[in-house]
Design a protein that fits this description.
Layout: H1 2-10, H2 15-25, H3 52-55, H4 59-63, H5 73-76, E1 85-86, H6 88-94, H7 96-103, E2 117-118, H8 125-128, E3 139-140, E4 146-147, H9 153-159, H10 166-176, H11 198-203, H12 231-234, H13 244-248, H14 257-260, H15 282-305, E5 309-311, E6 319-321, H16 345-358, H17 363-383, H18 408-411, H19 424-427, H20 431-438, H21 452-455, E7 456-458, E8 463-464, E9 470-471, E10 477-478, H22 484-490, H23 499-506, H24 528-533, H25 561-564, H26 574-581, H27 607-628, E11 634-636, E12 644-646, H28 670-684, H29 688-707
Antiparallel strand pairs: 1-2, 3-4, 5-6, 7-8, 9-10, 11-12
């Protein structure tokens, strides 16, 4: 009886529907006096109240959801308070009127809760369905980040974002006056992200809900398959349950949440938690790393902070003194007076990330790779102070390159929010399909790595786009003949410059004269396809009157990209290499190349060793030429754009104060431009020794020989293939 009455009063929040219902069943109003009103007919019997479960859309689905659970702590926590009300800081997500206040549905300013809210409400129809939420599309996060252009998921994310972030953790540490990372700060308490912060894992580094360590990069919004990219695509908005039928359209055999936890796509090729199980779902990887982090937290608390710690997922404030040092929060320990108080800054950060992974039970699908990175970094950071570090030697933090959404290749445009059309083909998940269909590209939003549909035209059969041939920067149109799958690879792994563009830049200029029109041309990264095809692609600068090797013809089946590389893990099939070449280390492969190409007297080293030595020699020759001929010392950094910088103190390296765009090298001559281009080319194809060693060795030899016309270069003993 009590529950029925409670439901009846809850429905008073269904404004329009309830008004209609009450009007329909209101009894006739009795006259003030018999003389005042003379009825002309018998008043009809009052209409029965409608069956709300039948007439209110989705009522039955909603009433069994967590949003309608009136007796849950989320809605009853403040019932014993005096006065009995929900603080404004909590009301946004724990009361209907508080949420309406926050979105401005009550006529107040949006973005803030102005007053405390009464207890006794739940998340009902008009909490989410009102005039203010119809056009609601921007969500502000605790970190200060805002995500705009959202649809209906903006309503969900307003509450499912947590109540803390890296910002609040750092503020708490600063306020407590922590002397350093590892000294206990008596005023420091645990910072709690709060429950079900699904948007934190979903949007990753864009909202910075986890504690992101300085110097590390993190995944952003993970793009699920088309049509399942928002909260309501995957969850029923009324029952809140996962739409398992939707999961099953791509993930065979998914019929339960437990089945969903086992999902692992082939792109997740690494063993993230180091347990040597790469068949388990991403949920298992998260759990494995979480267990490792708890181990590190407990070791650190005991050995560094000086007080054993234990965790309880149910009892506030979650971390407690482990009085009997048994590694768990026993019933008599998981009580507020026994809350953990020996916090250091380092421990605070790690515990926050542990809780972040715990309080979103669906994090493995919302954005599992972001959570994996947070857990890994927390362990690594704690390990710095542990006598016996937690073993991360077999664990992996990041995905293979195509799917490493945290890397510069995909995060470069985060501040701009859009990737230019000239870059989207290879740096977004949808650029390549657009290029294949339209032969051109337009600007697009940034991506968190490539996706299934980048290469697969059909996600049911996983058929790939068919590409007959690919045009290279030199203008050459090349292909792997019938191997259309490998032609897909060539679309991106071809570089962005060539002998043609370099030749055009230096045409008609004195080879040793500085010229302000000159600039460094960057071939870009991993131009393996251009290396493989050699002079047919002309990816490097080829010197006049020289002949160069053509396409390197490796025996089948290792004569294409996919013949040597797994399309998802990207790593070469070293077992196949070892089987034919009888070496344990592929860098030692040499075959019939018996000459001493680099002139160091070692004809037993692998071709990689020959190339690496000549690359070093070329860099030394470039620095000598820059200093003595161009009269402007030069230094190189492979990770900092524009790579070549003015060596202002002439110490041969790029110092921190020199590593900035406005200090980019400007003393270019045509001879130095061509050498620098070829040097960068060799550096940016780390597999060049396999892709086409003769071609690279020829180019390096010629670059050294050309610089030797104006500066000292020892060519003695070197051999050009």
């Amino acid at each position: 009886m009590t529950r029925k009455i409670s439901r009846h009063f809850l429905m008073t929040s269904f404004l329009l529907l309830v008004v209609v219902a009450l009007t329909a069943c209101r009894p006739a109003t009795p006259p003030a006096t018999q003389e005042a009103v003379q009825p002309t007919a018998t008043c009809p019997e009052p209409a029965p109240c409608p069956d709300l479960g039948t007439n209110v859309p989705f009522f039955a689905a909603w009433q069994d959801s967590a949003h309608a659970k009136a007796d849950a702590p989320a809605f009853t926590h403040w019932n014993e308070e005096n006065p009995r009300e929900i603080p404004a800081t909590c009301a946004k997500c724990h009361s209907s009127s508080g949420f309406q206040d926050y979105v401005g549905a009550d006529g107040s300013a949006a973005g803030v809760v102005d007053v405390n809210a009464p207890t006794g409400s739940v998340i009902s129809c008009n909490t989410c369905h009102n005039a203010a939420t119809q056009n609601y599309s921007t969500v502000a996060f605790p970190s200060g980040a805002e995500i705009s252009g959202l649809g209906g998921e903006a309503v969900c994310m307003t509450c499912h974002q947590g109540s803390a972030s890296k910002v609040q953790v750092d503020e708490a540490i600063a306020k407590a006056g922590a002397a350093d990372e590892d000294t206990v700060a008596s005023e420091l308490g645990f910072t709690n992200i709060h429950y079900y912060a699904a948007a934190v894992a979903r949007y990753g580094t864009l909202v910075k809900g986890g504690y992101e360590y300085e110097g590390r990069t993190y995944d952003a919004l993970w793009e699920h398959a088309g049509g399942v990219d928002s909260c309501v695509d995957c969850h029923d908005s009324h029952t809140l349950e996962l739409k398992l039928d939707t999961c099953a359209t791509c993930h065979n055999g998914v019929a339960s949440v437990e089945d969903a936890r086992k999902i692992r796509m082939v792109s997740s090729a690494f063993d993230y938690d180091g347990d040597e199980d790469i068949k388990e779902g991403i949920a298992g990887e998260v759990e494995g790393l979480r267990g490792m982090l708890l181990e590190a937290i407990q070791s650190y608390a005991k050995d560094v902070a000086g007080t054993p710690i234990a965790y309880s997922a149910e009892a506030y404030p979650y971390f407690f003194v482990d009085t009997n040092a048994n590694g768990q929060a026993d019933a008599d320990e998981a009580v507020f007076p026994n809350s953990y108080k020996s916090w250091t800054a380092r421990l605070e950060k790690a515990a926050y990330n542990y809780q972040t992974s715990m309080k979103d039970p669906g994090a493995y699908v919302h954005g599992g790779k972001y959570i994996i990175q947070l857990l890994y970094d927390s362990i690594e950071n704690l390990n710095e102070k542990l006598g016996t570090p937690v073993d991360l030697s077999k664990a992996h933090r990041d995905d293979p390159g195509h799917f490493a959404g945290n890397t510069e290749a995909f995060r470069h445009w985060d501040e701009e929010g859009v990737v230019p059309g000239s870059c989207v083909k290879c740096h977004t998940s949808t650029g390549l399909p657009q290029f294949i269909a339209e032969k051109t590209n337009t600007s697009m939003p940034f991506s968190d790595g490539l996706a299934c549909e980048t290469c697969h035209s059909d996600l049911q059969t996983f058929a790939r786009y068919e590409v007959e041939a690919v045009t290279f920067p030199s203008g050459a149109r090349l292909s792997f003949a019938d191997s259309v799958d490998d032609n897909l690879c060539l679309n991106c792994h071809q570089g962005r410059e060539s002998a043609v563009s370099v030749g055009r830049l230096i045409a008609g200029l004195d080879p040793d004269q500085n010229n302000e029109k000159l600039r460094f041309l960057n071939v870009h990264y991993f131009a393996a396809g251009a290396t493989l095809f050699g002079t047919e692609a002309k990816g490097v600068y080829e010197y006049p009157n020289k002949t160069y090797a053509g396409a390197f013809s490796h025996p089948a089946p290792q004569n294409t990209c996919s013949g040597c590389h797994d399309a998802h893990a990207l790593a070469p099939d070293e077992a196949a290499c070892v089987a034919c070449h009888s070496v344990e280390d592929t860098t030692k492969i040499r075959m019939k190349s018996i000459a001493d190409y680099d002139g160091d007297g070692d004809t037993a080293e692998g071709l990689k060793g020959e190339i690496d030595t000549m690359v070093e020699q070329l860099y030394a020759a470039m620095q000598s030429y820059a200093r003595d001929v161009a009269k402007a010392p030069l230094a190189y950094d492979p990770l900092a754009y524009p790579y070549f910088f003015a060596d202002t103190n002439d110490n041969g390296k790029v110092d921190v104060e020199e590593k900035k765009p406005d200090n980019g090298y400007k003393g270019w001559t045509p001879r130095l431009v061509t050498a620098a281009y070829n040097y960068q080319y060799a550096k940016k194809d780390p597999g060049g020794y396999v892709h086409n060693a003769p071609y690279l060795l020829q180019v390096l030899y010629d670059s050294l020989e050309d610089l030797g016309k104006r500066t000292t270069v020892d060519m003695k003993g070197k051999v050009r293939p």
